[in-house]
Each structure stands twice: as structure tokens, then as C-alpha cells.
Amino acid sequence: MIILVGLVVVAIAVLIQIDIADVHSKLSTNRPMLLSVFFPAALMALFNKMLFGFGEIFHSNVWWSRAFAMREGVGPKAYALGGLLWLPVPIVAGFLGLAAPALGIGISQPDTVGPLVAATLLGTGGALLVFVVVFCSLASSIDSLLAATSDLIVNDIIEPIHRQVSSGNRSRMTDATKRRASSIAIVCLGVLSWAVAYPNIGSLATVLFFAGPMVGSCIWPIVGGLYFRRPSPSAAGASMVIGTAVGLWSYFAIGWFVASLIGASVSGIVFGLLTWLAPDDFIFASLAEETP
């Protein structure tokens, strides 16, 4: 809600300062391709980001942990409402990008559009508002990632090991033990994240685009593994590895706007070929967890 309020405030400030017709006129004169629906770079970027978003939802334990925590019938309503609430965000963000030339603002990096527009129109207050919005968006993502990843580590790694070493029986971990293990996992993950981020490997946009091929390469193996018996572990693993490798190559050789697109495409082709050439017959009942 803070993110939505911040974007609406900035958008209203833009509309007060300039006229939509003036924005269109200046774009038509100076940057006509930005108004073209068939602008090649824009189309590639659109599908690249779309596949990145799909892969993020499929591969991230944040979404799975929330889906598993919902009672029956809540999931469709919750995700539909969340999508509707988030719909204004890309619309307003795109509008700010189109309005920047009309305001005479030079954009050197794509992820600086919002802060520059807000600071230009609203001064120090606008810069502070954007800082709060960005901080809230990062904090909401980071705490979800830490919690979801700690759940993954505790339930899929630590608890199976605990069962094996507990005098040969299959006893479960107590809730208190799980809570302590989750707390330790969150702290360790936080320290690891700081260590990785400390060298300043680039902007947030750079990190996201670089991760795009890895994320996009997860789409087809996960979808195929969820709904079909024939995909094999080798098909899933090979499609992720090859798709990621080719996608990262395209990131450096071509550009960020095709990395996720190429990675997801190659992953899908490899996954389909290996599933056809070496099919498996997975038994879904084997996923049922045994109770002590």
C-alpha cells in the first residue's frame, strides 16, 4: 500500500506540471519509436520481463510457501486481488518513463527514472518519498525471501537429516526446535546475502536482469514436473543448466532485454526433446509424506 500511495503521489505531481498532449507531442517529435507498439526492443523487453516474472513465481519458494499456507478456496481470490492491486504499478511506472523527456529530465539508467522525476517535481520531499517506497519494496521482498528460504532449509534439509540421525527412527522435529533452526537459518542467510552484496556487483536492475536466464529456465521443468509423469530428472536438470548457460551468454553477447527470453526458450526446447527421447514414469503418490 505504501508503494501504491507513493507512485500515485508522484503521478499526480507529474500531471499537475505537464499536459498529456504535450507529452505525446514531444515524444512524437523527439522519440517517435517510444509510441510504436511494434518497437522491436520494447517487444523483446516485454516478453523478457514477462518470462522473468513467470519464472520468479514458479521457482521462488516465497510463492509456494504462501500457497501452501492458504486454506482451500483462498488462493485464487488472494492472487487475483493481489494482481489487481499491483496493476497500477507498471502503468504508473511506464507513464513516468514517458513523461521524463517532456520534463526535460535526462535519464542515464533505467532504474533511476522514478527517483529523478520525484526529486525534480517534489524536491527533497519527493526524494524522501521515493526512498521510503524503495525501502519498503526491498524490505517486503527480503523478509519474504529469508522466511521462505529458511522454511525450505528446515523442512527439506535439516528435518530429513534429523530423522536419519535420531536413533534410526522417523520422529519429527518439535515446533520449538524448528523455530530455533529457522532463526539460525535466517541469520546465516542474512550474513551470506550481505557478503555477496558487499563487493557492489551493480545496480538492482543489473542484478535482476543477470538473474533472468536462471529464473526463466525454471519455468518449463517445474510446469512439466507438476502436471506430467513423463519428464525425467535428467530432462529437468539439463534444461535448467543449458537454458541458463545460453541465456547468460546472450546477456553478455546481445543484451539484457533478450536474456530471459532466450534462456526460457532454450530450456523449453531441451526439456521437450529429452522428455520425448528419454521419457520417465513418475509416481506422484511417492510424494506423500509418511507419518510416524
Automatic annotation (TrEMBL):
The chain crosses the membrane at residues 37-58, 79-104, 116-138, 181-201, 207-228, 235-252, 258-278. Keywords: Membrane, Transmembrane, Transmembrane helix, Transport. Its main location: membrane. InterPro entries: DUR, Na/Glc_symporter_sf, Na/solute_symporter. It is a multi-pass membrane protein. Signal peptide: none annotated. GO terms for molecular function: urea transmembrane transporter activity. Pfam families: SSF. It is found in: Membrane. GO terms for cellular component: membrane. The keyword DNA-binding does not apply. The keyword Methyltransferase does not apply. Gene3D superfamilies: Sodium/glucose cotransporter. Belongs to the sodium:solute symporter (SSF) (TC 2.A.21) family. This is Sodium/panthothenate symporter. It comes from Neorhodopirellula pilleata. The lineage of its organism: Bacteria, Pseudomonadati, Planctomycetota, Planctomycetia, Pirellulales.
